[in-house]
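Supplementary Methods, section 5.1.

A reviewer requested that the exact input to the structure prediction be made available. We therefore reproduce it here, unchanged from the version used in the analyses.
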Amino acid sequence: MENMNTIFEVGKEKFNMTEAKMATMKALVIKQFIKKTEESEKNTLLIHKTL
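The structure derived from this sequence is encoded token-by-token as follows.
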């Protein structure tokens, strides 16, 4: 999580982002992370069902 915060801060400075834009970006990143995690879990369950 510390690395993610560092990335956000670098992006904030590089792209001159406001706090509102930062909050939006963080929400989108978290949403994408959850989506990928759910997809991975579904794939794992499918593999186990076929074994």
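DSSP finds two helices and no strands in the chain. These observations are discussed further in the main text.
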